[in-house]
Amino acid sequence: MNLSYWEIKTWLTNVDFTVVGSGIVGLNCALQLKEKFPKAKILILEKGTLPQGASTKNAGFACFGSLSEILDDLNTHTQQEVISLIKKRVEGLQLLRNTLGDKTINYQQLGGYELFTKKDSSLFQECLAKKETINKLLKPIFGEAVFSLKDNSFRFNNIQEQYIFNQYEGQIDTGKMMDALLQKVLSKGVKILNNVSVNTFSEANNSVKIETNLFDFTTSKLLIATNGFASQLHIAEVKPARAQVLITKPIKNLHIKGTFHLDKGYYYFRNIDDRILFGGGRNLDFKTEETTVLAQTAIIQNQLETLLKTTILPNTSFEIEHRWSGIMGVGSQKKAIVKPLSNNVFCGVRLGGMGVAIGSLVGKELANLIPVQTEI
Length: 376
Ligand SMILES: Cc1cc2nc3c(=O)[nH]c(=O)nc-3n(C[C@H](O)[C@H](O)[C@H](O)COP(=O)(O)OP(=O)(O)OC[C@H]3O[C@@H](n4cnc5c(N)ncnc54)[C@H](O)[C@@H]3O)c2cc1C
Known about the structure:
By secondary structure, this protein is α/β, with parallel strands linked by helices.
């Protein structure tokens, strides 16, 4: 790239902190760094024209885990780990709401519903049997029972006639949240360069040399917030997981309001602007979906459409307006990875399907890895 003296001096010289990725984590990390180090020169590099991973692609559920998901997590994590995961999600959501304001992100606590298919009657029975135990486990966090039973008032088809309701679950407008976050970061004087992809980096003389698709430069500290793309920068513990979504055209008198989890959380849908946003189905083809390629596949999109017709909107005519996908970062454990990779390189990645909830907190924790006494 043919850079001028001015461009090099203004944007790429004496950079204190370089953040890779302008998703929820990268932006919150930059905000926190600016708060801790007001004089610091902070640069965010983003490979997309818009953020291009999950933060602008997600379903906008402000959730912390359905009952079956919590029970499933208890099979692979200790009770203490599960409580700590839920606490972080609740704390993260509060931080997001405090940072941007409920009105700005259109936060609405309409409640969350877990639906069980007709075939899932044993899982439904297990959830019913363990509901009170989990409510007790969560009482110290919420002060009241989280999960209760509700009748199928939305008239979904092919499901058990009752759902499990979570009174604390909410939803946001993802676009408004990311737009506000970007504006806030820019207003603090943080610079964002789009269409710049970090290819590699190396430590040199107590600084980090960064090579991008367009130019090379040096930064004092590098903070990696690339989630599903983390393995491309040698963070091997994170695997990409694509998630596909569709949205209907507006539906007259849409009676469905809230966030919904179906079939052990493999499917999720919600109302937004008189439409239904519906995603999931990775379990149909896990191997193909372990990719960073933003695309849709027939097998998943057809199943989403079938479920819309047969289960979610069986008596309502609808048309699909648009389809898209995003890339999550997953691994063997649900806990995010927030750690130093070397003296001057740090990462905050592996947010799974809960980044709306934990993204703000992970960004803050990533920034807090930098010692306060760091010279600027
Ligand atoms: C379809 C879908 C639905 C979801 N629904 C929900 C939900 O309802 N609720 C919820 O809590 N979570 C949901 N999630 C998960 C949530 O969106 C993510 O956990 C969260 O957005 C992760 O944020 P992040 O900042 O870590 O990563 P990202 O948003 O992926 O940001 C990483 C950024 O890094 C950039 N990048 C990557 N590599 C490079 C590089 N080498 N150089 C420069 N830039 C780079 C990418 O372009 C990207 O913008 C969903 C995810 C998807 C895909």
